[in-house]
Design goal:
Layout (H helix, E strand, L loop, with lengths): L4 E10 L3 E4 H5 L6 H8 L3 E4 L7 H16 L8 E5 L10 H9 L5 E5 L5 H14 L6 E8 L9 H4 L4 E11 L4 E9 L7 E2 L11 H5 L6 E2 L1 H22 L9 E4 L4 H11 L10 H4 L6 H9 L8 E8 L3 E8 L6
The structure holds oxa(dethia)-CoA.
Oxa(dethia)-CoA binds next to α2, α6, α8 and β12.
Length: 332
């Protein structure tokens, strides 16, 4: 019997309507369009506006659309892995909240927190349940409402992030397509350089923690940049080499969208021309767990059955990794 792989059989995405442009940011902090575009590649990002709107509200339209595309009901989903750094609340898990909102009555689920590498960690974890034969339909969601943790008075971070959600359905595949390899890493020594220190058990929310801004995302950009450039490229090349893939046989690089310069450096190390690299950072900025599935969603029409995809990410933790995925369908 041929080995069962976990293949993506449907992908969908959702970004909120409101566009936060570089021009508007110029009115909020001391920055300018030229600096943002040349240093990051970002022109605009989407923001979820409205009282009472949370990360699960980004996921609901994405998941409903995915179910419709695949022609299945929410009750058929067996497991939901919700990758996010901005859960609706500390508990219950956003996976539970999503299941309730979309009517996934037969699913169990949990949240997975690995910052910008969240989707890769979630995809790898979800694949285990398919490969073992335990489940046949696993939903992996990558969503973040980054605007809920961004300090719009801090020009170092507020220009970078946006809100968005991408999701995929994993199902068994016996044709040799699906998730074929993964290298995932963590290094807790990265904590000082990228974190949200308030609101957890270390610094429970108080007037003091709020006044000190501990509930906001903090990043020492230059240090994170150096680690990201090296590590993201290293793992992407490692996965390519150990699967005997070359720049000719890789069809697509799907990089985490944190900075266009990091994407370009990774593509260059992998020897891949820009036509093979998915880039939408100019439109959405860094949506943390959302970036990679949002790329897959936007490029779905161009993907062909059997295409070799290399996914790669680096983020807070530090966390980083790369996945080799053989695409399982051509959209009709
Ligand atoms: O997804 C999670 C992982 N995160 C990443 O991968 C992000 C990694 N880091 C980065 O992408 C970049 O480091 C940033 C885009 C965050 C910053 O770019 P940089 O080229 O590393 O700039 P820098 O932090 O070294 O700052 C250079 C200068 C500084 O001024 P001085 O000290 O040279 O006078 C900053 O104060 O640019 C200044 N600066 C700005 N100027 C205009 C910082 N932010 C801004 C801004 N507008 N928004």
């Amino acid at each position: 019997m041929s080995k069962i792989h976990a293949a993506i059989t449907a992908v969908n995405g959702y970004v909120p309507e409101y566009i936060l442009s570089n021009k508007e940011l110029e009115t909020m902090v001391d920055t300018n369009d030229e600096w943002i575009v040349t240093r990051t590649g970002i022109k605009e990002r989407r923001i979820l506006k409205g009282e009472g709107k949370a990360t699960s509200d980004l996921a609901v339209p994405a998941v409903k659309g995915l179910l419709e595309k695949r022609g299945i009901s929410a009750e058929e989903i067996e497991l939901i892995i919700f990758c996010t750094s901005t859960p609706d609340m500390l508990f219950p898990a956003t996976a539970n909240i999503l299941a309730d909102k979309v009517g996934a009555k037969n699913a169990w689920g949990y949240d997975l927190q690995a910052a910008c590498s969240g989707f890769l960690f979630g995809l790898t974890t979800g694949a285990q349940f398919i490969e073992s034969g335990k489940h046949k339909k696993v939903l992996v969601v990558g969503a973040d409402k980054m605007s809920s943790v961004v300090n719009y008075q801090d020009r170092n971070t507020c220009i970078l992030f946006g809100d968005g959600c991408g999701c995929v359905l994993l199902e068994p595949n016996e044709e040799g397509n699906g998730l074929l390899d993964a290298v995932l890493k963590t290094d807790g020594a990265g904590e000082p350089f990228l974190h949200i220190r308030g609101g957890g058990s270390l610094n429970p929310a108080t007037h003091e923690t709020v006044e000190a801004g501990l509930h906001y995302a903090y990043q020492e950009g230059r240090t994170v940049f150096k680690f990201a450039v090296t590590n993201m490229a290293d793992v992407a090349v490692e996965v390519m080499e150990r699967n005997n893939l070359t720049s000719d046989t890789v069809d697509w690089l799907v990089p985490h969208q944190a900075n266009k310069r990091i994407i370009d450096a990774t593509a260059e190390r992998a020897g891949l021309p820009e036509e093979k690299v998915m880039v939408n950072i100019h439109k959405y900025g860094n949506t943390t767990s959302g970036t990679i599935p949002l790329c897959l969603w936007e490029w779905e029409d161009k993907l062909k059955k059997g295409d070799n995809l290399i996914l790669a990410a680096f983020g807070g933790g530090f966390t980083w990794g790369s996945i080799y995925l053989k695409w399982a369908y051509t959209k009709s």
